[in-house]
Write a structure and sequence with these properties.
single chain, alpha+beta, 5-stranded antiparallel sheet, 4 helices, 5 strands
Length: 118
């Protein structure tokens, strides 16, 4: 699993992006559990994720409405299969409105670029 931490900060909210290979939903859940073993990620406000596993799209917003769908859309465009991407947000106390979607998209772009998967 690769983790890119402290990549975006806006009005107190902080973001990270992580990911790794996953062929099944159980693999994706195991990767998420591994990420949450780090206390910092376990205490995050949202760990939104998506993947295309064996051709089946799966996503979880983890309370950040629409984030999973956006991550999934970006993975579909990149043609990335059997790989889960997690965008983590620590809420900073001030609503971000639509900017939160821009931050999720920027986090996924960074992940795809830095891993060479995009």
């Amino acid at each position: 699993m690769q983790v890119f931490d402290k990549i975006i900060s806006d009005r107190g909210s902080r973001y990270a992006v992580s990911g790794g290979p996953a062929a099944t939903r159980a693999d994706a859940q195991a990767l998420l559990a591994e990420l949450k073993r780090a206390k910092r990620f376990a205490k995050a406000t949202h760990n939104s994720w998506a993947a295309i596993l064996s051709g089946e799209p799966v996503k979880d917003d983890d309370g950040e409405a629409g984030a999973g769908a956006l991550i999934l859309q970006m993975l579909e465009r990149a043609g990335l299969r059997d790989h889960v991407v997690v965008v983590t947000r620590w809420y900073g106390g001030k609503p971000l409105g639509g900017d939160r979607f821009r931050h999720v998209a920027d986090a996924v772009r960074l992940y795809l670029r830095e891993t060479g998967l995009g």
